[in-house]
Amino acid sequence: MPNRLANATSPYLLQHADNPVDWWEWGPEPFAEARRRGIPVLLSVGYAACHWCHVMAHESFEDEATAAYLNEHFVNIKVDREERPDVDAIYMQATVAMTGHGGWPMTVVLDHDASPWFAGTYFPDTPRHGQASFRQLLEALTQAWRERPDGVRQQAAQLREHLQAPAVLPSSPIGPGDLDAAVATLAAEFDPVAGGFGGAPKFPPSMVLEFLLRHGSDDALRMVDQTLDGMIRGGIHDQLGGGFARYSVDAGWVVPHFEKMLYDNALLMRVCADRRTEPALWAGEQTAEFLLRELLTAEGGFASALDADSEGEEGRFYSWTPAQLVEVLGQDDGFWAAELFSVTREGTFEHGASVLQLRRDPDDLERWLDVRARLMEARSARVRPARDDKVVAAWNGLAISGLARLGLWLEEPRYVDAATSAAELLLDVHLVDGRLRRVSRDGVVGAPAGVLEDHGCVAAGWLDLFQATGDVRWLRAATDLIDTALERFAAGDGGYHDTADDAEALVARPRDASDNASPSGLSSLVHALVTAAAITGEPRYRQAADDALGSVHALATKAPRFAGWSLAAAVALRDGPAEVAVVGPPGARRESLANKARHHPTAVVLVSDTARDDVPLLAGRNPVDGKAAAYVCRHHVCAAPFTEPAELTLG
Questions:
Q1: Model-level pTM greater than 0.70?
Q2: How far apart are CA 170 and CA 554, in angstroms?
Q3: Domains of the chain, with CATH numbers?
Q4: Are the C-beta atoms of 454 and 522 separated by less than 8 Å?
């Protein structure tokens, strides 16, 4: 019999709608019920593509006896972390404080005021490796609640105080020396063998790569190219269908954790578009095709993720044995493909299967394309991983940026058109009474309010789309969103809260400027502010960007791996950024001027037939003697217009 989650919009919550656990959605009602019954609240947080969330659900939440115990002794709340990042952030902070690590599924026990007093992650159904079973844990927690209430209250009070402690960070500008020092710190953490930073597990460092690309030093570009090469050739990259998995379980990018997230692929697509080497552009194009083929929704937005599992096994959809290759391709092509894709008899993954890699270029391009197409066709007959088809505003903003930038460079209008469709969905569905909502599904907007990350990523996406299309509605929509963020999210010290001042009051108001799997709210907003300042000339946007970056100086200089997006924005501010207006009749000259300007990854480039009074960067800019001309300004200083692409320099 379905529980209360049957009416949820989140695919993750709907996965638990048939559990025997009497789940509640987050809200005041379950806490009122817990007070009425005099029992604690158990909060379980995860997401639809989370492998270990599925494991714990199958082992514990689908078990009748465990569910009966949960229903008797706890009021149980299920939260999709992607739908409610504010709730997730608060209790993840508590989990890390209590255990020293975090992750999903996250299990937190709360008092009636939503203060945590116990936290952990995955718990098995039977005792394993010295870890208590979930049932044993529940019994111990129930006993503590009944027999040691003073200890529970003390623990909850201490954690509540920890969560509510204000983050006081010294503010200081991020200067050129800081940027160089960040590159040196990253070089010391760089893996010289496989690329990337640190050891296993290894995540795609997209935001750090964008910073290094913008820094542009030889050492920085070496780290970019080696990391991209390792990822593009590794098993983390889907060699048949394009797109990247969430992370590699090893340091060499060989075996991925197979879930594919929209934010990873959107960010990597942007890095590839901005790097513009032949391998990077090929990988960017393959990633764009993956987005359009597998994540595009009927409403024009992009779904959040593909699951890691199919038929109950992680990676089953993506892995191959030599025998399977021969079955599809025949003996000659099968043996050739096995050698090319590093498919071994022993296997690189599990059960003798291998994840496809491409450690060398194929010696026969036509044969490779044919083999790849035939394997892709055979794979399409397999049971596909499930898709989390909710549309997250922030991640669609990232996808809009990536598609718009890649589409411009490759002169592929399908990518710009797809970016436009996603932007229209956000504008038409996610903006409700002038305020941004975080999620929608099947064209129906969800209740959760947009957080700072949504405002920054969507505004930046709309500004990239404005540069690609010249449609001024995207500029207007972006600046409206930025103005809302400045009014509703500012912390008063140059930094920003992650929730609006009129958002639901939680046990604490989350504020975290560090980048994680996706950009922080602060860093995403700074990118939008920098671009908006360049287009509009509005000094308050630049000042807000300067102040925000000053508030993360300590993070950016001490831990640059967690501040890559802020550092990338700091490079843009150091560079100006270059404000380029290319004005004149369509044709080869205008396109050459625009493309040369776009070679610089921080440049803001607008293209128009004539001057436009409704866009400050284009105001008063006219063709020169009937020829297309490029007007280049930086730090409020403008050069004479360029009419010859060979002479164009951004200074």
A1: yes
A2: 7
A3: 4-164 (3.40.30.10), 201-307+388-500+509-575 (1.50.10.10), 318-381 (no CATH), 579-647 (no CATH)
A4: no
How many CA atoms, within 13 angstroms, populate the side-chain half-sphere of residue 174? Answer: 31
Token pair in block for residue 301? 């937005």
**Calpha distance 270→268 (Å, rounded):** 5
Q: How far is CA 472 from CA 423, 460, 608, in A?
A: 13, 14, 11
Residues of the chain with pLDDT under 50: none
Query: Are the beta carbons of 134 and 60 closer than 8 angstroms?
Result: yes
Tokens of 541: 């946007």
Let me know if 147 is exposed, middle or buried by CB neighbors in 10 A (0-12, 13-18, 19+). Answer: exposed
Phi and psi at residue 172, in whole multiples of 5°? -155, 140
Tokens 């010295």, located at residue: 130
Q: What is the pLDDT, as a whole number, of residue 1? A: 59
Contact status, residue 599 vs residue 650, Cβ threshold 8 Å: no
Buried b (16+ CB within 10 A) or exposed e, 7-21: ebbbbbbbbbbebbb
**Contact (CB, 8 A) for 355 and 256:** yes
C-alpha–C-alpha distance, residues 157 and 149, integer Å: 12
Tokens 């959605």, residue located = 25
* 603 within 8 A of 597, measured Cβ to Cβ: yes
Q: Which residue, among 156, 171, 22, has the nearest Cα to 97 in the 3D structure?
A: 156
The strand pairing partners of 579, in sequence order, are 604, 633
- Which of 599, 610, 603 lies closest to 645 in space, CA to CA? 599
Angle of helix 149-164 relative to helix 85-99, nearest 10 degrees, comes to 120
- pLDDT at position 50: 87
Which one, of 479, 477, 362, lies nearest residue 431 by Cα?
A: 477
Question: Which alpha helices (DSSP H) does 45-119 contain, by range?
Answer: 51-56, 64-73, 85-99
- pLDDT tens for each residue of 159-180: 999 999 877 667 899 999 999 9
Q: Is 573 helix (H, G, I), strand (E, B) or coil?
A: helix
Which H or E element spans position 459? helix 452-469
Kindly report, residue by residue over 14-45, the tens digit of the pLDDT: 999 999 999 999 999 999 999 999 999 999 99
∠ CA 97-99-101, nearest 5°, is 85
Going by C-beta distance under 8 Å and a sequence separation of 6 or more, which residues neighbour residue 58? Answer: none
Question: What does each C-alpha distance from 71 to 40, 42, 64, 75, 149 come to in angstroms?
Answer: 11, 10, 10, 7, 20
pLDDT of the residue at 171: 86
> pLDDT for 388-422, tens place per residue?
999 999 999 999 999 999 999 999 999 999 999 99
Whether 572 contacts 274, CB under 8 Å: no
291 secondary structure, DSSP code: I
Contact 632, 609 (CB under 8 A): no
The DSSP call for residue 142 is: H
Amino acid identity for residue 178 in this structure: D
* Rounded Cα distance, 4 and 483, in Å: 38
Q: Which residues contact 386 (CB under 8 A, 6 or more apart)?
A: 48, 49, 306, 307, 309, 310
Alpha helical stretches, state H, 380-451: 393-410, 413-425
Give dist(CA 19, CA 62) in Å, integer: 5
Q: Give start and end residues of each alpha helix (H) in 411-538.
A: 413-425, 452-469, 472-488, 521-536
Phi/psi of residue 311, nearest 5 degrees: 55, 35
- C-alpha distance from residue 452 to each of 68, 195, 396, 496 (Å): 39, 31, 14, 8
Token pair 């009944």 is found at 146
- Taking the C-alpha atoms of residue 198 and residue 320, their distance in angstroms, rounded to an integer, is 29
Amino acid at the residue 317: F
